[in-house]
Amino acid sequence: MRAVVMGAGSWGTAIAKVLVDAGTDTTLWARRPELAERITRDHTNADYLPGITLPDGLSATSSVGEAMSGADVVVCAVPSQSLRANLTEWMPHLGADTTFVSLAKGVETSTLLRMTEVISEVSGAPGDRIAALSGPNLAREIAEGQPAATVIACADEDRARDLQDAFKTRYFRPYTNTDVIGCEIGGAVKNVIALACGMASGVGFGQNTLATIITRGLAETIRLGVAVGAQIETMAGLAGVGDLVATCSSPLSRNRTFGAHLGEGATMQEAQDATHGQVAEGVKSCTSVRALADKYDVEMPLTDAVHQVCHSGLTVADAVSSLLGRRAKPEIYD
Ligand SMILES: NC(=O)C1=CN([C@@H]2O[C@H](COP(=O)(O)OP(=O)(O)OC[C@H]3O[C@@H](n4cnc5c(N)ncnc54)[C@H](O)[C@@H]3O)[C@@H](O)[C@H]2O)C=CC1
Ligand SMILES: O=C(CO)COP(=O)(O)O
Fold first, then answer.
1. Which of 4, 5, 6, 11 gets mutated to test ligand 1 (max ligand atoms within 8 A of its CB)?
2. Where on the phi/psi map is residue 215: left (φ > 0), alpha (ψ -120 to 50), or beta?
3. Where does NADPH bind (predicted)?
4. Is residue 194 within 6 Å of ligand 2 at its C-beta?
C-alpha cells in the first residue's frame, strides 16, 4: 500500500509520521515548497510541530502530481471548509480505485455535508471507498509517540481492516467501525463543545462547569447523531466521548484555546490572530452544526450559544445566563 497525506499542518504531519512508523510507504504534500523542502531535508515541521523529529523515511513535496503518483490511499488533511476546493484541484491526479481517508472534523457550511460526503460528491467515489479517521488524537501527543487509540470508520469492513494495518503502530491503535456518520458527527460537534469549555475556563469557571458542558455536550452530540443516522454506541466510543473529553480538557486544543481567549474578553479577531494560522474548526462548524440541528429539529442549546457568541456578538456572560435560564426539564428526553 502507498499512501499520500494531503496537507502538512499539525495533524497531517503527525499522521504521516504514524503511517511511516507503521511501515507504510508514505509521501506528505505541503502547499508551500519551502515547507516541503524543510520536511524532507531537516525531518522537522517547525511551523506546526516544533521539536518533533520526523522519520527519515518521510519525504514531502509541493507537487500534487508527484505526491499522488501511484498512491492507493489519499489521506485528506486540509481544513473542512477548504476540502472541496482542494479536492477539485487534486482530481486530475487521482487514481481510479483510490481509497480516501478523511481526517477533517467539520461540516461544510455551504451544503451541511459531512466530509466523506464532500469527498464522494467531488470525486464520484462510492461510500465504500471513503473512510473517516477520528478519535482523541491531539496531534502533538501522537507525534511524540504517546499511546492513544482512534477509529477508522468505513462502510466496507475489509477496507477498514486494511487501513487499520496501514495506520497501526506501537503507540497508535486504530479500531474499525462501519458507522461513518457517528464518527464524523462526533468529531464535528466536539469542536463546538470545546469552544464552550474554553469560554468557561477563560471566564475562570472550574471543573464542575467543564464536566457539565462536556456531559450536556455529549447529550447534544447523541441527539444530533441519532437524528442523522448514527449509532449511539459510536458516540459512547473513542470518536464520541473520547475525543470530546480530550479536546475539551486539553490546552493543546485550538478550539478550546480559541474559546478561552473569548472567555477572557478577547474579540473574535484577537482570538483568530492568536491561532497563528492554525484552524479552530468549531468556529465555522458551529454554524453548520446548528443548521443541521435545525433541519432535523434537534435541540442543541450549547451549540446555539457558541454560535451566538462567535457570530452574533453575544457575550460569554450573557450566554451563560441564557443557558442557565432555560426551562427546567428531565435529564433524559427525546
Ligand atoms: N491538530 C490536531 O490535533 C487534529 C486535527 N484534526 C483535524 O484535521 C484537520 C486538519 O487540521 P490540522 O492539520 O490540525 O490543521 P492546521 O491548522 O495545523 O493545518 C492546516 C493545513 O491545511 C493547510 N490549509 C489551510 N487552509 C488551506 C486552504 N484553504 N487550502 C489548502 N490548504 C489549506 C495549511 O497550510 C496546513 O497545512 C482539521 O479538520 C482538524 O479538525 C483532527 C485530529 C487532530
Ligand atoms: O481533533 C483534535 C483532537 O482529537 C484536535 O482538536 P483541536 O482542533 O481543537 O486542536
1. 11
2. alpha
3. 10-11, 31-32, 48, 105, 139, 254, 279, 281
4. yes
Distance between CA atoms of 297 and 275, rounded to whole angstroms? 33
Cell of 245: 473529553
Q: What pLDDT, in 10s, does the model give residues 64-92?
A: 999 999 999 999 999 999 999 999 999 99
Rounded distance between C-alpha atoms, residue 180 and residue 172, angstroms: 20
Distance (Å, rounded) from C-alpha 8 to C-alpha 31? 8
The alpha-helical segments, DSSP class H, found in the chain are 10-21, 33-42, 64-68, 80-90, 115-123, 139-143, 157-167, 180-203, 207-228, 232-235, 243-249, 254-263, 268-273, 282-295, 301-311, 316-324
329 among known catalytic residues: no
Nearest to 49 by CA among 292, 278, 331: 278
CB count in 10 Å sphere of residue 277:
9
Q: Which residues are CB-contacts of 273 (< 8 A; sequence separation ≥ 6)?
A: none
Per residue in 218-273, pLDDT (tens digit) is: 999 999 999 999 999 999 999 999 999 999 999 999 999 999 999 999 999 999 99
Give the predicted TM-score (pTM) of the model: 0.98
Confidence of residue 121 (pLDDT cuts 50, 70, 90): very high
Please give the DSSP secondary-structure letter assigned to residue 135. S
Ligand 2 closest atom vs CA 243? 4
**C-alpha–C-alpha distance, residues 39 and 41, integer Å:** 6
> Which tops the pLDDT comparison, 305 or 276?
305
